[in-house]
Amino acid sequence: QVQLVESGGGLVQPGGSLTLSCAVSGFTFAYYAIGWFRQAPGKEREAISCISSSDSSMKSVKGRFTISRDNAMNAIHLQIDRLEPGDTGVYYCAAILGPRCSSGMDYWGKGTLVTVSS
Q1: Are 64 and 82 in contact (CB under 8 A)?
Q2: Is the pLDDT of residue 71 over 70?
Q3: Which of 32, 69, 81, 93 is the most exposed place for a label (fewest CB within 10 A)?
């Protein structure tokens, strides 16, 4: 049974940092690209970052967001620095077979809520 389970969400203050995790099971993790997506209140889901199945560095930095993967632990992480109220939303991890993420991911987690507020 395929499962992607996000964790690490919660209430955080603006300017802080947060690391979200996604535990994956039920498929061969190393063959899949894994991405993080976010849905803010009242908005459509958007892609944040993706890490390729062939990325030997296991890490990718995009602005305030750092995505990393641990193939040994079947997990990916998303570190968000300098959090802003606009980062509030439900964060999802998703997986797709192959080296790249796309809008049509194969598997999705149920999400974890991040609220940025003072």
Answers
A1: yes
A2: yes
A3: 81
**DSSP string over 9-72:** -EEE-TT--EEEEEEEESS-GGGEEEEEEEE-TTS--EEEEEE-TT-TT-EEEETTEEEEEETT
Q: Are 48 and 111 in contact (CB under 8 A)?
A: no
What is the tens place of the pLDDT at every residue in 30-61? 899 999 999 999 999 999 999 887 776 677 77
**CA distance linking residue 111 with residue 27, whole number of Å:** 19
The contacts of residue 72 (CB under 8 Å, 6+ apart) are: none
Report the distance separating Cα 76 and Cα 71, nearest Å.
Answer: 8
Residue with tokens 């609220």, as numbered in its chain = 115
CB 40 within 8 A of CB 85: no
DSSP class of residue 86?
A: G
